Amino acid sequence: MNNHLFDAIRAAANRGGVFIETIDGKRWTYDQMLTQSAALAGRLVDLGVQPGDRVAVQVEKSPEALLLYLACVRAGAVYLPLNTAYTLAELEYFIGDAGPRLVVCTPVARGGLAPVAAGHGARVETLDEQGGGTLLQGLKQGSSFEDVGRGPDDLAAILYTSGTTGRSKGAMLTHDNLLSNAQTLREYWRFSESDQLIHALPIFHTHGLFVASNVVLLSGASMYFLPKFDADQALNLMQTSTVMMGVPTFYVRLVQHDGLTREAASRMRLFISGSAPLLAETHKAFAEKSGHQILERYGMTETNMNTSNPYEGERIAGTVGFPLPGVSLRVTDPESGQLLPDGATGMIEVKGPNVFIGYWRMPEKTEAEFRPDGFFITGDLGKIDEKGYVHIVGRGKDLIISGGYNIYPKEVEGEIDQIPGVMESAVIGVPHPDFGEGVTALVVKKSGATVDESAVMEGLRERLARYKQPKHVIFIKELPRNTMGKVQKNVLRDQYRQLYQPAAASVGRSS
Ligand code: MCA
Ligand code: AMP
Q: Which of 213, 249, 453 gets mutated to test ligand 1 (max ligand atoms within 8 A of its CB)?
């Protein structure tokens, strides 16, 4: 039977060669990818997973975890990856909302998750980063598997993206959303089977899972699969690699490393950045030290990749390049939705085979974010310059991006406001030399309350993933408000913009 995404992966895999190499020298060939994902797909079916069922996965990065994604595709299931930093409190929501048939977690997390999963009728299996755990114990090696038929519009994955208002929304991505985008990127970035990618991103987000892994799979290329980013390791691997994909923090850290030289990067053909704005100064410093112009691109969980700087042609720092082939991008008035002329700043809207089909079980939210003619309203503010390059100049949505992870202030404020002694709070992102933006909380105490920074952090510990927690909690007398009573976050951002600059690290911490 035809399986839209996996048929294309299989066609590339049939050329053979090495698919994954880990840092301890273990290798997975494309043949092994095919046989092991088949065995794993069979295991999923034995566990009761049926076409369309969600499989929620919160595990450490490993080749087996990637094979589990492929097994879900082959079994016609809907893959639902979850950030390993999420706390049990956060997971309860995702499991309740998505209603998965199966939850795969680390052996350590099983105790906490089992009652939650059971409460929602889901079964739990475990997988650790060495390939151990109950999921693989029942695997029938060498067994064949007939891929479940799936068409272009069938769901392949749901990825949760935090909501500006209310709870996280599950973006529903189809087989063709993933396949078409990966095929476009393969061509645009000139990927081939002779490429070797340094893969140091997590695999629970679009960047590491779909952009990096699907492009490699569809090119028959190879990748070094690293548990996390480490600048020393990346520099060593540049000797035997051709491409790296990363968030701006990777490049900030590489620029600071003495080992980054033209010689060290001479074998590489391409460095790609995305998920957050790459500062023009980082682009420039990287080019000076390594001789490579970083190629910056722009995407979203809901849309996969929308734009990219060119492979050949000028890569302009501070821009995200041109709309990808097949992607329509326009800039409109945020209020009226009227098309704006080139050069004017407004809301970026996109349409194309890359754009998701809606939010899981949230038809009203889906409707609110699409124009009647099918364009998706990204929430990013930008403009198109006279040469056609897209610039992102801000965000219409109240969102912080720290080291490539998104944090919605409202979610953090909601948790802080529940801590005893807190009257209200405002959470903002201010420039951070390593993470791009640093999550910062301004808190107003109730009169006579003794709550302090450590009490706030303790109150958040089990509620929010570590990367969402403020790097600083600052107590102030009152929040600045405009005449409508709305908190003026721009005033706060201005006031604290030096907070994480080295010379000012202690400024502004008062109680
Ligand atoms: C780790 N910490 C963070 C972050 N990462 N805090 C804020 N923001 C972060 N991103 C915390 C740790 O919990 C730790 O806390 C402390 O910071 C220092 O950790 P460290 O070991 O230095 O961090 P790291 O392990 O080096 O991680 C930093 C990282 C990582 C390499 C930037 O966060 C990362 O790989 N980010 C990539 C995210 C990503 O893939 N995003 C793509 C989303 P403590 O020590 O206090 O406990 S997809 C997307 O956005 C769209 C579709 C797109 O366009 O791609
Ligand atoms: P996510 O919800 O994690 O998919 O994050 C998507 C958001 O990341 C986009 O809406 C943008 O705000 C931001 N983003 C991604 N790539 C870039 C980039 N190259 N420059 C600026 N912002 C980016």
A: 249
